[in-house]
Write a structure and sequence with these properties.
The chain has helices at residues 6-33, 38-46, 65-78, 80-99, 102-108, 110-114, 228-264, 276-304, 308-336, 338-341, 348-358, 365-377, and strands at 118-121, 137-141, 144-155, 162-168, 178-184, 190-195, 206-217, 221-222, 266-267, 270-271. With 381 residues, it is α+β, with helices and mostly antiparallel strands. The chain folds into 3 domains: 6-114, Orthogonal Bundle (Butyryl-Coa Dehydrogenase, subunit A, domain 1), CATH 1.10.540; 118-226, Butyryl-CoA Dehydrogenase, subunit A, domain 2, CATH 2.40.110.10; 229-377, Butyryl-CoA Dehydrogenase, subunit A, domain 3. Helix 3 (65-78) packs across helix 7 (228-264) and helix 9 packs antiparallel against helix 11 (348-358). The model has no long low-confidence stretch (mean pLDDT 97). The structure holds flavin-adenine dinucleotide (FAD).
């Protein structure tokens, strides 16, 4: 059993209330209009949950990873896009928290709890799973680095106030040639391409970014030159946990919808919940989601204990188990609800489209299996 303290209980109660009053009523609308919910950002900020992982001295509430996972789960039950706001925010600032210096933290972190947005920019058109094949480059010139290249699919890309951007400072060195930079909206040479039109998670923004001789002050290098991977890898590990928790919440939301519908839908003279075929599907959905939840909590436990080595495998496994489960559960929820499940009058078709993305981003589920296998076999392959 996981015992929550009174503070954790209070945070989660606040989140449940916000979800009920503000997030759930907006979920279908922001999906339909592909609209970024600025009103939800404001509500999260006002209630201290826009960046809850941030320590109090930077304006956050200093939650651990387990509490944050539970917050994501609660929000994703109603709206996975709204949970993604918190995930993109954390992905953007955690590299600064992990590897930035005090001046960078003091300057950039406090605004993020209050309403400013962050983003994490690594992926490029020709560098997705094979992130080391990125082409963006940064060359030091006096007090600046000059960045050239492009990024794609970046969550919050065109609306972020700050972005953690990865680029090669020495392409010859491979992984030890990548550096991380803090890029502000408005930096000269930061140009925006299109925002993507997506299948699901339509309440979030995903953008192309172009760096055209973009000038980044040298003091905005995060960590040391060539040490970008040192902030990228832990940020990817944590992001995989966050995706897992988002997937768990999404799956639970779909189960709740399907159970409620099955109890009310009458066919052949009684509720379809009496049919064993439906009961078995619901039982599988519930068991799969509970297993994924426990895996996510275990991964969060490793992170809270700062046990990074076991955390890497636990986060990767939680991510692929939870998102594969969410895909199956949401598809089955549509099936249980029959033709109505396929209609936009009910939320499960949106949940099914949203679930698909979680199998892809923060490393595809094929790559998650590779990470897991690497941790198992080490160099003994
Ligand atoms: C909506 C959305 C939001 C995103 N947000 C961000 C963001 O904020 N920041 C960011 O940096 N990136 C972001 N991404 C990028 C995301 O992380 C990548 O899309 C993902 O890592 C996969 O890369 P790819 O799309 O280039 O696919 P590819 O790498 O081209 O993969 C294509 C297929 O090949 C498989 N594959 C590739 N290599 C292997 C292998 N070695 N073994 C087995 N199978 C393999 C993959 O699993 C996949 O099925 C986002 C993507 C999307 C769609």
């Amino acid at each position: 059993m996981i015992e929550l303290n009174s503070e954790q209980k209070m945070i989660l109660e606040t989140v449940r209330q916000i979800v009920k009053d503000k997030v759930r009523p907006r979920a279908a609308e922001i999906d339909e209009r592909a609209e970024f919910p600025w009103d939800t950002v404001k509500i999260f900020a006002e209630n201290g949950i826009l960046a809850p992982l941030l320590p109090e001295k930077y304006g956050g509430i200093g939650t651990g990873y387990l509490t944050f996972s539970m917050i994501l789960e609660e929000i994703a039950k109603a709206c996975a896009s709204s949970a993604l706001i918190l995930i993109a925010q954390a992905d953007g600032f955690l590299p600064i928290l992990y590897a930035g210096n005090d001046a960078q933290k003091d300057r950039y972190l406090p605004g993020l709890a209050g309403g400013k947005l962050a983003g994490f920019a690594a992926t490029e058109p020709d560098a997705g799973s094979d992130i080391l094949s990125m082409k963006s480059s940064a060359v030091r010139k006096g007090d600046f680095y000059i960045l050239n290249g492009q990024k794609c699919f970046i969550t919050n890309g065109s609306i972020a106030d700050i972005l953690t951007v990865y680029a090669f400072t020495d392409p010859e060195k491979g992984p030890t040639g990548i550096s991380a930079f803090l890029v502000e909206k408005g930096f000269k040479g930061l140009c925006y391409g299109k925002d993507e039109n997506k299948m699901g998670m339509r309440g979030s923004i995903n953008s192309q970014l172009f760096f055209e001789d973009m000038e980044v002050p040298a003091e905005n290098l995060i960590g040391r030159e060539g040490k970008g991977i040192a902030s990228m890898m832990p940020a990817l590990d944590t992001s995989r946990l966050f995706s897992a928790s988002q997937a768990v919440g999404l799956a639970q939301g779909a189960i709740d919808e399907a159970v409620s519908y099955a109890g009310e839908r009458i066919q052949f003279g009684r509720a379809i919940s009496h049919l064993q075929a439906i009961q078995f599907m619901i039982a599988d959905m519930e068991a799969g989601t509970e297993a994924a939840r426990l895996m996510a909590y275990r991964a969060a436990g490793y992170l809270d204990a700062k046990e990074w080595r076991p955390a890497r495998k636990a986060c990767a496994m939680a991510k692929f188990i939870a998102s594969d489960n969410a895909m199956k559960v949401t598809t089955d929820a549509v099936q249980i609800m029959g033709g109505y499940g396929y209609m936009k009058d009910y939320p499960v078709e949106r949940m099914m489209r949203d679930a698909k993305l979680i199998q892809i981003y923060t490393g595809t589920n094929q790559i998650m299996r590779l990470v897991t296998a690497r941790e198992i076999f080490g160099n003994n392959r």
